[in-house]
Design a protein that fits this description.
Layout (H helix, E strand, L loop, with lengths): L1 H16 L13 H7 L3 H12 L19 E3 L4 H8 L13 H18 L14 H26 L23 H18 L14 H16 L22 H14 L37 H6 L8 E5 L8 H6 L13 E3 L1 H4 L21 E2 L4 E2 L18 H6 E2 L4 E2 L2 E2 L4 E2 L18 E2 L9 E2 L7 E2 L6 E5 H15 L7 H13 L5 H8 L6 H16 L5 H7 L3 H4 L2 E10 L4 E11 L13 H6 L10
Parallel strand pairs: 9-14
Antiparallel strand pairs: 1-3, 2-13, 4-5, 6-10, 7-8, 11-12, 14-15
Helix pairs in contact: 1-2, 1-3, 3-5, 3-6, 5-6, 6-7, 6-8, 7-8, 8-9, 9-14, 14-15, 14-17
Length: about 625
């Protein structure tokens, strides 16, 4: 009987939470299955757990979302990336990675079903739902998850239909129009606030990967920053609608700053301690990352590295840990094929656009950029114009950089275990073992999320990876909201105003990276910390460096409305080896021209939804 029960539960979960048919447009698979599942505390818990599997995560198909931005490139057979780069997509042909509509509405449907049943599920002292307290916690987990999925839909599409109950084929709510931004804000914040009131501040132990009150606060803070940004908060997009507020209001930035600060300062009501804090890990051991791995950065900057290879830490509010507790699967997919027996990999590669964003260790931008962070091209060299204050040698491009550079990128001459990266080519047609032949070749490889301290290549056979680490992909981590608070407050304050609080938030990130503080950086570079535009440029670059490949750049360039400038060209680092004297010449080269139009700032509503719902209005330009 138990096995039959499990099969029925599995069928119901599959039909309710893995529904790709569209906007909740089919009936339940059967009342019997539904009745069985929600008559069991065990299977009710499993149903809720299954909803968590709908959370977005960066390792999907081993290609990161940042590969679809100026920060990255992907292997050529990943069609969804090429679709985005070439602009070859429309409401009937949405790139696979961006097909969030059906996925998220399936998850929302499951949340609504769960919420309609949870109050009547019997408590079972021998199962997870062992008390009324646990029942309440599970209920508000579903509320929080629903808010998360709706907030993510806003990032992709703007306002969407708000559905709060389980629909069948005859439900009139199937024809619900898209909510405007005010309605989306009110609904999502109400869910966040109610979840935060009933959930523990942060779930621990076996429940570490479940949402707590801090996640509810994080969803709210991220949403308010999105809604305060130029994409929505302007007078250019017409009256109040799913894609426009109809006006500009500086107080939206203040709301976003206050929500971020509420999370940053949030203390557990029982212990009185901060729920989350940045990881500041320092070491005096020069071999901390393993004697066989090169690391020219600061030993004081290990906190940034530690966040991504320590499964449980104070900075991550919610993570997706699909890869298992101690594996090297992520490393296998991102390291070049020369370092393993499974052939070519390197599915996501950093561009030189991204590498160029890292300052020197003394806080100088290496290259000159405009106000949107777009690199200025030197007409004499046709390369990025070098900042004369940086004392930067383009033929020693990887020396003396921000320590986060060395935790984020592998480059020519750096080491992984006992293997040195050889990403060069030579005039005679030969090339180094890590030069990508026939594939995207940027001269760089992704190091972020890897743990060279625990993972190595065999001493006798460098093609065999050994060891494992606790990979986790952060869905929400505190650094995002420290930077968000700084950005929002900088935008709220008038130009010329004192920005001490903005500086205080930014200095938390700079201190952890062992970089010069904001005032020192500003003084060295000749700009004033009261200058709103100068601080905006600085904050945006800091966000790019700190949060790269965590699925932020894709949305940031859209909410800032800078895609038409920054997403048109991808650059690589060409390394030419002179075999006669074993020296290298580094050249910045244009790799790819890309298509980006203003309509790409929001995704198109899938055409099937527009066809099926006469009240569904398509996004502008689509």
């Amino acid at each position: 009987m138990k096995n039959i029960f499990l099969i029925l539960c599995t069928v119901l979960i599959a039909s309710c939470s893995i529904d790709r048919a569209g906007l909740l447009d089919k009936q339940e698979s059967g009342d019997l299955n539904e009745a069985l599942v929600f008559s069991s505390a065990l299977y009710t818990k499993q149903f809720l757990t299954d909803i968590y599997r709908r959370l977005p995560y960066g390792w999907d198909d081993n290609v990161y979302l940042d590969a679809a931005t100026d920060d990255g490139e992907a292997r050529p057979w990943w069609g969804w990336v090429n679709q985005i780069h070439t602009g070859a997509w429309n409401p009937t042909s949405v790139p696979d990675k961006l097909k969030r509509w059906s996925d998220y509405y399936a998850a929302i449907r499951a949340c609504n079903l769960f919420l309609s049943k949870i109050d009547n599920v019997p408590v079972d002292a021998e199962q997870y739902m062992s008390s009324e307290e646990v029942r309440t916690r599970m209920k508000y987990e579903a509320v929080c998850l629903r808010a998360l999925f709706y907030a993510d839909l806003v990032r992709y599409y703007g306002g969407v239909p708000i559905i709060t109950k389980v629909l069948d084929r005859d439900s009139p709510e199937l024809f619900t129009p898209r909510a405007n931004l005010q309605q989306m804000k009110e609904f999502i914040i109400a869910d966040c606030d109610s979840a935060a009131a009933y959930l523990p501040s942060k779930q621990l132990s076996a429940d570490y990967h479940r949402v707590g009150a801090s996640v509810a606060k994080a969803i709210k803070a991220r949403l308010l920053l999105e809604l305060a940004s130029p994409l929505f908060n302007s007078t250019e997009s017409g009256p109040l609608s799913p894609w426009s507020w109809g006006n500009y209001d500086a107080n939206r930035w203040k709301e976003a700053a206050d929500a971020a600060k509420d999370l940053i300062d949030y203390k557990d009501p029982i212990t009185g301690k901060l729920v989350s804090d940045l990881v500041y890990l320092t070491t005096t051991d020069p071999n901390y990352l393993n004697a066989r791995n090169s690391y020219p950065g600061s030993l004081k900057a290990m906190g940034f590295y530690s966040v991504f290879v320590t499964r449980v830490n104070s900075e991550i509010l919610l993570s997706f840990s699909r890869k298992g507790a101690t594996t090297n699967e992520l490393d296998k997919w991102q390291l070049p094929g020369s370092m393993q027996t499974e052939g070519d990999k390197s599915y996501t590669e950093p561009t030189y656009n991204y590498a160029a964003a890292f300052e020197t260790k003394d806080g100088y931008p290496v290259y000159l950029t405009d106000d949107d962070g777009q690199y200025i091209i030197d007409p004499a060299t046709n390369e990025f114009a070098i900042n004369p204050k940086a004392n930067f040698n383009p033929q020693k491009p990887y020396d003396n950089r921000d320590s986060r550079f060395y935790h984020s990128i592998w480059y020519q001459g750096s080491k992984f275990s006992n293997v040195t990266f050889e990403a060069w080519r030579a005039a005679d047609g030969s090339y180094g073992r890590d030069y990508q032949v026939g594939y995207a070749h940027t001269g760089l490889f992704l190091r972020k999320f890897m743990d060279p301290k625990n993972i190595s290549t065999g001493s006798n056979n460098p093609g065999v990876l050994s060891g494992g680490t606790s990979h986790c992909f952060p869905l929400f981590r505190l650094a995002e909201f420290v930077l968000g608070a700084a950005e929002a407050l900088n935008e709220f304050l008038p130009d010329g105003a004192d920005r001490s609080e903005v500086i205080a938030q930014m200095d938390k990130i700079r201190l952890r990276a062992d970089m010069p503080d904001v005032k020192t950086t500003a003084l060295r570079n000749g700009w004033n910390t009261t200058d709103k535009a100068a601080m905006r440029k600085f904050i945006r670059n800091e966000r790019r460096v700190e949060l790269a490949f965590e699925e932020h750049r894709f949305f940031d360039i859209r909410r800032w409305k800078i895609g038409e400038k920054t997403q048109r060209s991808a650059y690589v680092h060409d390394v030419l080896k002179d075999k006669t004297n074993n020296t290298f010449t580094y050249t910045i080269k244009l790799w790819e021209r890309r298509i980006y139009e203003s309509r790409h700032n929001l995704l198109p509503i899938p055409q099937t939804e527009v066809n099926n719902n006469p009240n569904m209005v398509q996004n502008p330009g689509w």
